[in-house]
Design brief:
37% strand; disordered N terminus; 550 residues; 5-stranded antiparallel sheet
Length: 550
């Protein structure tokens, strides 16, 4: 078993003791959800107190009442009622099922014969080699990627304290509070919605000299107060927004592949494999000092690749690689835990998963992408427990990152060997990246309100791939190539990045929740080798034209 890392971290600036749902930290003026009730942190008492009840079809999502979820949601609600009973809808969780036998042989015809893996030596780089000293401060401003924009007069912003907002990505999954004793009078006006006015993204290096090796995934706590980053050898980096520092939270006992926050704020789910190579999902929490606690370990068949939260009800989808032709899918439910595996055949090994709109198949469904030693896409229809083909074309190339537009009617899939964007709404639309060729897009994340997405990938010709999908506020709108905007980072081989041209460098991105500013984090690989590793990359991005950004 891997021993946990111990690093002295700077204390967090949480002004109030925790008292409220899931024991979330009470920061003066912050809001969280308890069922359908918005809870406000009262600085005098240090407790979360009921502020308003979300009614008229609204749901409480991380401290705000919003009309969230899919536009055409058709799946029945199977969450627990306030009286403790459960709605008897069709069971979205399949019974135990053995995987279909894999074909005896199948040619490897993928455009890319390999999987998108770290460079040589990354797996044996000393992942626990931590530097000395306290966390490093948010860093020097980098290039902004726009035409004729000088950064000489631009400084890294002074990050403002958290502001409650409508820009959220998750819903509290705990039992609803009774509403009889909660008043909705005199609670004050709601915050105005975030105005859609996308502009040029600016970037700043977040220096850290503690954690060596590559970073693979990033997830924000629903409060937006901190993020966790999954790195080489299972190490998790803690990025505190208030103190602007990066520290090591410790590590899971194995290798981590992906991470997602729990909607109720109680912790995170981390996928990966233990030291013996067995598939695992770890439920972890982080204490007030930023230290990791592994609360639960779940066994998974295959090698878990990705985890995707449901947009409404707190469930998470997990996919695992069994072989080039056999994949496994699971649903983790905060009420019932992890389902039995759903094994199925596909032309390639699974890479990612996203929740599709219920209207596609009349209920909950999981869309998988396959890009290990071949290419494919499949959908698991939970109500009927069937896996159907999505008519992935052999000309598409290897399928990588996937993300359904929150509340919208299509999802994005990265073609990392074809340098294309694929859009799925029941059929496929082929998009062409606005950033040239050979950029290998591998990571994507939608902003919680579905207005924009960010996609990241390789470094070519000393430019780091970043492009934006400007979908706009109309969730019923369809996709076209005109909404793709180049937001790449030029001169990536120079200070403060010192990136390696031609290597897969940017890996994942995440928009920050619970803020009116359009901002977030990008993480990526270091620029070292297995013999001389350097430090994992963290980039802060924000919209220079957003008046809510500091």
């Amino acid at each position: 078993m891997r021993s946990y890392l111990t690093v002295i971290a700077l204390p967090l600036l949480w002004a109030c003791p925790a008292s409220g749902p899931a024991d979330q930290p009470c920061l003066a003026g912050s809001r969280i959800c308890n069922g359908t009730v918005v809870m406000l942190c009262e600085p005098t008492s240090g407790n979360f107190e009921p502020e308003r009840v979300c009614d008229n079809g609204l749901v409480c999502l991380t401290g705000a009442c919003l009309p969230r979820g899919f536009l055409d949601a058709a799946a029945p609600d199977t969450r627990t009622r306030p009286d403790g009973t459960v709605d008897e809808g069709p069971d979205p969780q399949p019974e135990q099922q053995s995987p279909d036998p894999a074909p005896e042989s199948q040619p490897d015809s993928g455009a890319d014969p390999g999987h998108d893996l770290p460079p040589d030596g990354a797996s044996d780089a000393p992942g626990e080699d931590l530097g000395s000293g306290d966390g490093a401060a948010w860093g020097e401003l980098g290039s902004d990627g726009g035409p004729d924009l000088s950064t000489d007069d631009v400084t890294s912003p002074e990050l403002a304290p958290d502001v409650p907002t409508n820009d959220v990505t998750s819903q509290d999954a705990g039992p609803d509070l009774p509403t009889d004793d909660v008043t909705t009078e005199d609670v004050g006006p709601d915050l105005p919605p975030d105005i859609y006015n996308p502009g040029l993204l600016l970037y700043a290096n977040v220096p850290q000299f503690l954690i060596t090796g590559n970073f693979f995934a990033v997830a924000w706590h629903p409060s937006g107060q901190y993020a966790l980053i999954a790195g080489h050898a299972g190490v998790l980096a803690h990025v505190d927004y208030a103190t602007k520092t990066v520290t090591s939270a410790g590590s899971v006992p194995g290798d981590a592949t992906d991470i997602a926050a729990l909607d109720d704020g109680s912790g995170f789910l981390v996928t990966g494999s233990d030291d013996d190579g067995a598939g695992r999902v770890w439920r972890v929490s982080v204490d007030g000092a930023g230290s990791l606690q592994v609360d639960q370990t779940l066994n998974v068949t295959g090698d878990p690749q990705s985890i995707s939260p449901h947009p409404q009800d707190g469930r998470h989808a997990v996919v695992a690689y069994g072989s080039d032709f056999i994949s496994y899918a699971y649903v983790w439910d905060p009420l019932t835990g992890l389902t039995a595996p759903k094994g199925f055949n596909a032309a390639g090994g699974v890479n990612d998963v996203m929740w599709g709109a219920p209207a596609l198949y009349g209920g909950d469904n999981l869309i998988t992408t396959h890009g290990i030693n071949n290419d494919d896409s499949r959908t698991w229809i939970l109500s009927s427990d069937q896996v159907v083909a999505n008519n992935w074309s052999a000309s598409f190339g290897n399928a990588g990152c996937a993300g359904w537009r929150p509340g919208g009617n299509y999802g994005l899939v990265c073609g990392y060997s074809s340098n294309k964007l694929y859009v799925f709404n029941g059929s496929w639309t082929l998009g062409t990246l606005p950033v040239g060729t050979a950029f290998h897009p591998v990571g994507a994340d939608w902003k919680g309100d579905g207005t924009r997405a960010i996609v990241v990938g390789a470094v070519q010709a000393n430019t780091a791939l970043v492009f934006e999908v400007r979908a706009g506020p109309d969730l019923s709108s369809s996709y076209d190539d005109g909404i793709l905007v180049n937001q790449s980072i030029p001169q990536f081989d120079e200070a403060p990045w010192f990136g390696n041209s031609g290597s897969q460098y940017l890996e994942a991105a995440a928009w920050r929740p619970s803020t009116n500013c359009d901002e977030g984090l990008i993480v990526g690989w270091d620029n070292g080798t297995s013999f001389n590793p350097t430090f994992g990359l963290i980039i802060h991005f924000w919209d220079q034209d957003d008046p809510d950004c500091p």
